[in-house]
Fold each of these.
Amino acid sequence: MKIAVTIKEVREQVNEWRKQGLSIGLVPTMGYLHEGHKSLITCSVSENDRTVASVFVNPMQFGPSEDLESYPRDMDRDAALCEEAGVDLIFHPEPSEMYHNGFSSYVDMDTLTGGLCGKSRPVHFRGVCTVVAKLFNIVMPDRAYFGQKDAQQLAVIQHMADDLSYGIEIKGCPIVREADGLAKSSRNTYLNKEERQAALVLNKALSEGKKLIEAGERNASKIKDTVTEIINAEPMAKIDYVEVVNWSLLEPVDNIDGTVLVAVAVFIGKTRLIDNFIVKADDRGRVYVS
Ligand code: AMP
């Protein structure tokens, strides 16, 4: 496994692989890798001849009062996990390599980014779209892998790849959880013991929402109310949002119909955690929840 810090090094390696006719998968990450990231890497390794993982804490997707400085970093550990999981090349650039002096071009989106996380993180998706567009241009992969954990990001990147005709297959991978149900996240390291316990309320509330839908409930407000009530019963939790939206444009829906995302963002102390599930209702009224 190689570690590249410059765009030039990545391009040289990718060109060599392309000449040999090899397919390439890309897994973009901000590092401090865990089993969730590993599942994306494993999927890419199984579907492509070569896998590139990027490890880059992208300053552009953090707001001024967010956790850019304190975001956890451990490149040695990340490199070991990547090597074990079968990554061929890690791209680990400095911010100055990605954003040279005078950088002034952006990729942004008029739909999908205004609600959910975009509401409380107004610059976030412009930063995400710009960095992922750059990674796509640098690596030119056949496939790129994103977790359903960041469901809005997955929808936004699918939309961007389609709008801008990247010709890259965007693959969504299921949420990997701790044994007690908490969705794995690099930010879970911010939680103290009591907060870690309180954080279970996200999955607990979503599981009740799922149960209602599986029992036949189709009214989105009822799902939202149940999820909200359960989270509000946890004294350490403060809701940022509880939303039920369609998957195509991430707009609020009245009924569970077609593909629908039920998503929450909740502050546990100072740490903002997100979680979700996706429901697919077919025309015979059967539902599939993931
Ligand atoms: P991050 O390093 O947090 O930017 O995440 C990099 C990629 O890993 C994103 O596509 C995330 O959605 C994905 N990811 C993070 N946590 C999980 C998880 N628990 N399960 C599945 N994918 C995840």
Note: The beta strands are 2-4, 24-29, 50-55, 89-91, 143-147, 169-173, 237-246, 259-268, 271-281, 287-289.
Amino acid sequence: MQSEYKVSTPWTLDAVLAVYDLPFTDLLLRAQTLHRQYFEPNQVQFSTLLSIKTGACPEDCKYCPQSAHYHTGLKAEKLMPLEQVKTAAAQAKANGATRFCMGAAWRAPKDADVAHVAAMVREVKALGMESCVTLGLLNAEQAQTLADAGLDYYNHNVDTSPEFYGEIISTRTFQDRLDTLGNVREAGLKVCSGGIVGMGETRRDRAEMLRQLANLDPPPESVPINELVAVPGTPLAKAHKVDPFEFVRTIAVARILMPAAHVRLSAGRTQMSDEMHALCFMAGANSIFFGDKLLTTANPRDAHDRELLARLGIAAEPGPQTVVAEMCHDHGEMMEAPTESQAQA
Ligand code: SAM
Ligand code: DTB
Ligand code: SF4
């Protein structure tokens, strides 16, 4: 496997569209070939999500069941107590997750919120899992507080192209998002950023979204590609489903533009067939949300996911702790935790 990350950035929109336009099997072959140069084939990362603060969000993101602007029947909940988070993380670990991601329905957290979330991050880290949080817009000091607590990743999606963005959200700008990603990077955190497919955007928008992500310097380490979960009560409840092959193409283009990133097949999996999952893995997806629930909507049952991955000969990617345990066993002594590239080797 190749460990060095070579990029042909900056990507132009024409170059990205040319990749999208490849014949389907050529595109998949190219994506899969590149995937194998950077990652162990037939391994998928398991992340589990937990909503630590649910609903009543002041933002107006048209896709989101948690926005206070829409009536989705969701019950709002205050910030979850630390003990409950600890229990959920331990449960996720017991189920095989190696990354635990906590999401909050905030426009931007207050400093006191960040201090509470930092305590949650410490608990997740104490379990030997990778930690990720998604709390909305973050300033530089808040990003530093989370980094000091040992946070690994911050998730903040660009969601779509800068051109289509205004059709979806009016309460914060594309530039606000980039500023948050800049603060996250400055604090030394790893970036998890992706978007949503199926909101009525064009292929050009999808290409531009991926181009924006790939041209970040450095690009995100983790790229969630969500298919819209069309929730009744949101303005996008009746959005037309995107052609499944176009979704697979988006995964493949993400893999080609960001070869060293974990590309996560994120929301929308309950609407996808087993065959569609297999195509997404072939296109270079190597991470999923695992567990019966995303933040507020359903995810496939773990038993179904386990069976599907077994049928496909795909194993769970070892997490940081598994690798340490194996090294200790091999050497009969305690060793330092491996770096991420060692863990992936
Ligand atoms: N409030 C924070 C924020 O927006 O940055 C964090 C939580 S928010 C729910 C995280 C991401 O979930 C959004 O940026 C969006 O990409 C994704 N998301 C939310 N609702 C979705 C839906 N109905 N379908 C697909 N993805 C969705
Ligand atoms: C991401 O890109 N997708 C996740 C995670 N990051 C936080 C969230 C998906 C949410 C789907 C709708 C819901 O369950 O509320
Ligand atoms: Fe709020 Fe995040 Fe939902 Fe937008 S996506 S409404 S910011 S929870």
Note: Residues 49, 65, 103, 134, 155, 157, 194, 224, 226, 229, 266-267, 294-297 surround DTB (ligand 2) (CB under 6 Å).
